[in-house]
Design goal:
35% helix; Fumarate Reductase Iron-sulfur Protein, Chain B, domain 2; 5-stranded mixed sheet; alpha+beta; Ubiquitin-like (UB roll)
Length: 248
């Protein structure tokens, strides 16, 4: 395939960016989207030009680093995949593809297609954990029975990889789906009950401080999430927040 790429280029966080056109040839359908960008960067380096900066790590759909806005959609036209799992067979010869960074106040552009998503880390640090003494003492496995449905729901929430597609898909740039997944992961399990009140209040407050918007009730976040995180988690977080507020 021969493609026209319209890519957002931005020197740094303080510079004004712009869309720049590139041509790539010989792209195979079995290539991943990131491999296609690798081909482009090889061409640019050969010409002595600066390659396009984009985030990536595992390239196995696990780390969530490869977050790109492709033709206006987080992670592109496929569903339940990250950008590194998107294959070029989803496009046609001669297509024009727009490639931009995720757009959100809380995700400032670092350079080109790379954004700073450390706001997610700070939300997680605010309460997305269970305090356990791990000083080297041998501790038996927890013997508290857990309802299978609760265990399954907690595991489903825990599959969130923090890529930020939910934020990019939301017209308010809301982080409600991400935050609710991290809250639900513990709210459904007995081990998470000890710190439940402090957790949800701290994480929601941190989410607001980072500048994310409120939920739009549109549901675009669930549709674009590569792991299919359910909107039910937002409802659960809201219930947890109300209960915590009444206690506090």
């Amino acid at each position: 395939m021969n493609l026209t790429l319209k890519i957002w280029r931005q020197k740094d966080a303080n510079s004004k960016g712009a869309i720049v056109d590139y041509q790539v040839q010989g792209i195979e359908g079995d290539m991943s989207f990131l491999e296609m960008l690798d081909v482009l960067n090889e061409q640019l380096i050969t010409k002595g030009e600066e390659p396009v900066v984009f985030d990536h790590d595992c390239r196995e759909g696990i780390c969530g680093a490869c977050s790109l806005q492709i033709n206006g959609e987080p992670h592109g036209p496929d569903r339940l995949v990250t950008t590194c799992q998107l294959h070029m067979r989803k496009f046609n010869d001669g297509d024009t593809i727009y490639i931009e960074p995720f757009r959100a106040k809380a995700f400032p552009v670092v350079k080109d297609l790379m954004v700073d998503r450390s706001a997610f880390d700070r939300i997680q640090h605010a309460g997305g954990y269970i305090s356990v003494n791990t000083s080297g003492n041998t501790i038996d496995a927890n013997a508290i029975p857990v309802n299978k449905q609760d265990a399954d729901d907690a595991f489903s929430a825990a599959t969130c990889i923090g890529c930020g597609a939910c934020v990019a898909a939301c017209k308010n740039a809301s982080a409600m789906l991400f935050t609710s997944a991290k809250v639900s992961q513990f709210a459904l399990l007995p081990q998470g009950q000890v710190e439940a009140t402090d957790r949800v209040l701290a994480m929601v407050n941190q989410m607001d401080e980072e500048g994310f918007g409120n939920c739009t009730n549109t549901g675009a976040c669930e549709i674009e999430c590569p792991k299919g995180i359910s909107l039910e988690n937002i409802a659960r977080m809201n219930r947890e927040y109300v209960k915590a507020s009444m206690k506090g």
